[in-house]
């Protein structure tokens, strides 16, 4: 091989230099790629960790299980040896940090002392690592606990070879409700990315705790409500039972009063020497009848409320005769009040199945209310018709004072009386409408009230198809 | 095998025997020698290089691999000082391989097939290191251990109690570390 000429020696040196440069370039490119790959890997890991904890926070049945998972996952992500959770207690004026017993330790035997010190410890705001986090509401980092002068568990940490520490708050609402703390066996410089990640985890976990609190309070409220409802129901039943018994006891002497007043009124045993006595015995008789009617209403309603009422019969009710009979009774009252009164039964009206006594009572109550609350010159009408849906509707309409929605609600409450200028003058117990509704309900019928102040009231009793019978004799015309 | 191992081998060979020797080894092994640290290359290429070095220098292949491991360690310390920073002695560094070094390696080299070590300390103070690796390079592990001991100014005696290369289902190394400065690293068959 010939010796290289000076030129080619230069060339060789040049090539060598270029090779060295190329090597450096390659090495640098590799380093850059390594960094990029590492970043990518770590950010993917962080994302996976966050996703895992978010999923756990959303799905975990208890906040504790979400905290436990987060503690383990953060340890495996960071490679730190110890993870532990303090809960914040608000029982006293000053919040206190106490261990929740959620612990993750790489080596139980080696870490036993530190675990004991940790789980037995209790911290006030500002004291120790968790106290610092509680006070600031922010994540904290200790490079080496042995160099930290606010770390009461330093002796135990040193004994177990723990150095670096980091902790972050679990925030629910704007309150710190728990603190997660982690320890490594090596000294570590603060890692801003890790601290940010920890804060995000804290917010996720806060959601789990909020959810648990919400669920708990909803549960508690539901239980309270159910208890209150049971109590109210049993009190109402007791009241109804009492009223039913009382009404029965009252009726017996009342019948005697009415009966003897009747005898006196009719001068059965001899004429009254003073004319007023006859008049007084009429008062006794009328008042007695009125009282009996009220007691009967109370008895009916309390029986229904006590759950003891049943339909006393399931007879065939032919409506036209019932309605015309009503028009006589109510007609008199209407005439006395100067109210026009009209009853319409559509031709081909089917029969109802139920208690005629109750259906009559429903209509009497509705009609007498209508007449009562309609000023002189007004009109009251009762219309019975078969709806296309097959329901049978009896509507009682008046041109009276009407009611607002609030007043309708009052009128439907037993003993509730709408306080208005007109009603104040009216006698009654406030049982008419509730009783009508309760009796309708025994027929599975619905009471619909359409009313507005000053625009009159229409109360419709809607009997279901199941209670409607088309008489065979008339079916031919339908 | 990851390209970084080939890069380290090139560096070790070039350092002790010159760049031309590395070129010769590549030619003799019939390899083009294009290795980047992030790439993955057939294990067979490393075996062929080891075989070539062994034949050329007249050294048993396993001794070649051990030498390479020993010499590669200071180069690794230069490239990745963070792995060594927290340690002053060999054993804690070896313990950190499972928990720190290999997880980091997996971050940079996706798909890296690092072995997982089991550690056990015997009554007489030896450290037993067991592992199952899909590759027959337990001599490399031994070389790395000795290299690490050199780095920390100690000496490691490594004994193969069980060896995958001999047909055992796993490798089991017994390691004894002494605080003794070893003889200065010498070029292989230098």
What does this structure look like?
The complex is a heterodimer of chains A (478) and B (190). With 478 residues, chain A is α+β, with helices and mostly antiparallel strands. In chain A, 55% of the residues lie in helices and 18% in strands. Chain A is built from twelve helices and 14 strands. In chain A, strand 1 and strand 2 form a beta hairpin. The termini of chain A are far apart. The model of chain A is unreliable at 420-426 and 474-478 (pLDDT under 50). Chain B is α+β, with helices and mostly antiparallel strands and 190 residues long. Chain B folds into two domains: 3-58; 86-179, H-NOX domain (Alpha-Beta Complex). In chain B, helix 1 (3-17) crosses helix 2, helix 1 (3-17) crosses helix 4 (61-79) and helix 2 crosses helix 3 (43-57). The longest helix of chain B has 19 residues, at 61-79. The two termini of chain B are 27 Å apart. The mean pLDDT of chain B is 87. Chains A and B meet through helix 1 of A and helix 6 of B.
Main attributes?
heterodimer; A: alpha+beta; B: alpha+beta; 2 domains; four-stranded antiparallel sheet
SSE topology:
The complex is a heterodimer of chains A (478) and B (190).
Chain A: H1 6-59, H2 63-78, E1 82-89, E2 96-105, H3 108-120, E3 122-124, H4 128-136, E4 140-142, H5 154-159, E5 165-172, E6 175-183, H6 192-265, H7 275-305, E7 315-317, H8 319-337, E8 340-345, E9 351-354, H9 356-372, E10 379-386, E11 392-398, H10 405-412, H11 432-442, E12 446-451, E13 457-463, E14 468-469, H12 472-475
Parallel strand pairs in A: 8-10
Antiparallel strand pairs in A: 1-2, 1-6, 2-3, 4-5, 5-6, 7-9, 9-14, 10-11, 11-13, 12-13
Chain B: H1 3-17, H2 19-29, H3 43-57, H4 61-79, H5 81-85, H6 90-108, E1 117-121, E2 127-131, H7 138-151, E3 155-162, E4 171-178
Helix pairs in contact in B: 1-2, 1-4, 2-3, 3-4, 4-7, 6-7
């Amino acid at each position: 091989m010939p010796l290289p000429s000076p030129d080619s020696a230069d060339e060789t040196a040049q090539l060598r230099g270029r090779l060295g440069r190329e090597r450096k370039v390659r090495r640098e490119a590799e380093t850059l790629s390594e960094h990029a790959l590492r970043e990518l890997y770590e950010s993917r890991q962080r994302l996976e960790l966050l996703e895992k904890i978010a999923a756990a926070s959303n799905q975990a049945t208890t906040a504790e299980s979400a905290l436990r998972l987060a503690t383990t996952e953060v340890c495996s992500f960071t490679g730190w040896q110890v993870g532990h959770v303090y809960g914040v207690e608000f029982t006293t004026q000053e919040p206190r940090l106490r261990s929740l017993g959620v612990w993750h330790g790489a080596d139980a035997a080696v870490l036993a002392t530190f675990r004991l010190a940790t789980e037995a410890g209790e911290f006030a705001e500002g004291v120790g690592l968790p106290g610092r986090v509680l006070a600031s509401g922010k994540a904290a980092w200790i490079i080496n606990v042995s160099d930290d002068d606010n770390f009461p568990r330093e002796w135990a940490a040193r004994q177990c070879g723990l150095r670096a520490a980091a902790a972050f708050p679990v925030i629910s609402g704007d309150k710190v409700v728990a603190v997660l703390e982690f320890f490594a066996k090596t000294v570590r410089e603060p890692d801003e990315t890790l601290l940010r990640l920890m804060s995000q985890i804290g917010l996720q976990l806060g959601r789990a705790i909020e959810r648990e609190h919400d669920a708990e309070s909803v549960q508690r409220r539901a239980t309270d409500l159910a208890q209150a409802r049971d109590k109210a129901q049993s009190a109402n039943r007791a009241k109804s039972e009492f009223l039913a018994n009382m009404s029965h006891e009252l009726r017996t002497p009342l019948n005697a009063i009415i009966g003897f007043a009747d005898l006196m009124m009719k001068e059965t045993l001899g004429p009254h020497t003073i004319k007023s006595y006859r008049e007084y015995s009429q008062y006794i008789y009328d008042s007695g009848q009125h009282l009996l009617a009220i007691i009967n209403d109370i008895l009916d309603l309390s029986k229904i409320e006590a759950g003891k009422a049943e339909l006393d019969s399931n007879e065939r009710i032919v409506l036209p005769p019932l309605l015309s009979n009503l028009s006589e009774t109510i007609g008199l009252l209407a005439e006395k009040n100067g109210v026009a009164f009209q009853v319409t039964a559509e031709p081909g009206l089917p029969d109802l199945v139920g208690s005629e006594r109750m259906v009559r009572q429903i209509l009497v109550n509705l009609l007498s209310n209508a007449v009562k609350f309609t000023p002189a010159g007004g009109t009251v009408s009762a219309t019975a018709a078969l709806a296309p849906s097959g329901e049978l509707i009896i509507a009682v309409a008046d041109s009276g004072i009407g009611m607002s929605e609030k007043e309708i609600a009052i009128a439907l409450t037993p003993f509730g009386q709408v306080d208005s200028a007109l009603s104040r003058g009216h006698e009654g117990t406030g049982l008419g409408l509730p009783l009508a509704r309760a009796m309708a309900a025994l027929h599975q019928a619905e009471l619909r009230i359409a009313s507005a102040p000053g625009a009159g009231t229409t109360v419709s009793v809607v009997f279901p198809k199941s209670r409607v019978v088309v008489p065979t004799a008339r079916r031919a015309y339908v | 095998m990851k390209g970084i191992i080939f890069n380290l081998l090139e560096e070790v060979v070039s350092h002790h025997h010159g760049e031309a020797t590395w070129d010769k080894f590549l030619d003799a092994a019939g390899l083009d020698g294009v290795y980047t640290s992030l790439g993955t290359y057939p294990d067979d290429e490393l075996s062929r290089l080891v075989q070539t070095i062994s034949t050329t220098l007249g050294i048993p292949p396993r001794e070649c691999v051990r030498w390479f491991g020993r010499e590669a360690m200071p180069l690794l310390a230069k490239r990745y000082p963070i792995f060594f920073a927290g340690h002053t002695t060999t054993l804690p560094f070896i313990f950190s391989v499972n928990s720190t070094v290999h997880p980091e390696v997996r971050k940079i080299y996706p798909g890296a097939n690092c072995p997982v070590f089991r550690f056990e300390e015997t009554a007489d103070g030896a450290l037993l290191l067991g592992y199952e690796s899909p590759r027959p390079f337990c001599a490399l592990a031994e070389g790395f251990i000795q290299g690490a001991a050199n780095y920390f100014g100690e000496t490691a005696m490594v004994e193969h109690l069980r060896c995958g290369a001999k047909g055992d289902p796993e490798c089991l190394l017994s390691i004894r570390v002494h605080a003794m400065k070893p003889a200065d690293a010498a070029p292989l068959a230098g």
